[in-house]
Amino acid sequence: MTKPVRVAVTGAAGQIGYSLLYRIASGELFGPNTPVRLSLIELPAAVKAAEGTAMELEDCAFSTLDGIDIHDSPEKGLEGVNWALLVGSKPRGPGMERNDLIRDNGPIFVAQGKALSRAASDVRIVVVGNPCNTNALIAQHNCREVPATRFSAMTMLDENRARAQLALKAGVNVGAVRNLAIWGNHSSTMVPDFDNATINGKPVTQVITERKWLETEFLAAVQKRGAAIIAARGKSSAASAASACIDHVKRFLTKTPAGEWFSAAIPSDGKLYDIPAGLIYSFPVRSLGDGKYEVVRDLKLSSFTRELIGITTKELLAERDVVKDLLT
Ligand code: NAD
Ligand code: LMR
């Protein structure tokens, strides 16, 4: 019998938690032969709702679901886990930027960072709660026992959104759009790198020749998609965010095929693309399939993209400054 993978989800009773937990429990993430033991972590006031989610998970009768534990503290909830999916935090409302949440949500990741010292020795951490890059930075600084490279923040939703917009414009299936890297912050300064992406193996710019559209409408649509969803639904994205979280973990678990990459915010080592060391920064990443990954080197960046990368970098440096009292 394979040993269960232990997965913690914070904010288990929230909207993303509701979509995410079923897809983990069903075997979709780790495969049909790997049992999963879930640790649902919630605020005390939401534990009852988490119990309801757990009842429904049981009622799905997933043969891959080994068991469910519910916790109202990160210390107990993160103990022994192999994956920590840190979702629980306040979402923004209409008219807000994600980094307006920083002083409310940042402290959550201090406590969770400290509690991660109790996780399994191979733990990997994915931060979804916003502002996710800087929250991941806070968690990582508060958990020096776990190597920094095990911390990531999610920009897969932005990559998926960008691929979907390009596919719509080109009239192709979204699967034809590959290698769409998001650079920088999961914020309205993020940079979707259309110059290095491909559609059916050809550079995007050869298929969509209207460069002005790429630099204006496309860029704005991707950067502001989260806000557009809030304006339409009255609540932020949930099913697509959960789906992107599944994609994020799967991409890290699987060796990336030669010549391909995906987007994830990971700690910058300061050696590549002039991005300051230490920032949790979205790069084009390749998984080596054994728990390790590398940033794709030597991509040619247009002056347009380089300028935008400068802006998103400045924003992340400013966010780091705002939370400097939370960093150890
Ligand atoms: P939600 O309000 O529906 O749920 C959040 C849940 O987190 C609530 O149940 C709440 O009780 C819980 N929670 C709050 N503080 C907690 C803590 N300290 N420990 C454990 N649980 C805690 O929100 P949601 O729609 O699920 O969104 C969650 C977060 O994800 C938000 O910050 C949102 O902005 C972010 N988000 C990020 C992305 C991304 O692409 N990175 C996409 C969508 C949403
Ligand atoms: C998103 O991109 O949908 C999330 O980060 C939620 C938000 O606040 O936009």
SSE map:
Layout: E1 5-10, H1 15-25, E2 36-41, H2 47-59, E3 65-71, H3 74-77, E4 83-86, H4 102-115, E5 124-127, H5 132-141, E6 151-153, H6 156-170, E7 177-178, E8 181-183, E9 191-193, E10 198-199, E11 202-203, H7 204-207, H8 211-223, H9 225-233, H10 239-253, E12 262-267, E13 280-287, E14 293-295, H11 303-322
Parallel strand pairs: 1-2, 1-4, 2-3, 4-5, 5-6
Antiparallel strand pairs: 7-10, 8-9, 10-11, 12-13, 13-14
The structure holds nicotinamide-adenine-dinucleotide and (2S)-2-hydroxybutanedioic acid.
Residues 10-11, 13-17, 41-43, 46, 87-92, 108, 128-130, 132, 154, 157, 186, 236-238, 241 line the site of nicotinamide-adenine-dinucleotide (NAD).
- Low-confidence blocks of residues: none
The hetero compounds bound to this protein are: nicotinamide-adenine-dinucleotide, (2S)-2-hydroxybutanedioic acid
Rg on CA atoms, Å:
19 Å
| Share in helix | 25-40%
What's the end-to-end separation, in Å? 41 Å
Work out the helix count: 11
Any idea what the shape is? globular
Trace the largest sheet across and list its strands.
3-2-1-4-5-6
Instruction: Provide the structure class.
Output: alpha/beta
Order of helices and strands: EHEHEHEHEHEHEEEEEHHHHEEEH
Looking at the overall shape, the CATH architecture of the largest domain is Alpha-Beta Complex
**Major beta sheet, specifics?**
6 strands, parallel
Strand elements, count: 14
Beta-strand content bin: 15-25%
How many structural domains in the coordinates?
A: 2
The CATH topology assignment of the largest domain is L-2-Hydroxyisocaproate Dehydrogenase, Chain A, domain 2
CATH superfamily of the largest domain: Lactate dehydrogenase/glycoside hydrolase, family 4, C-terminal
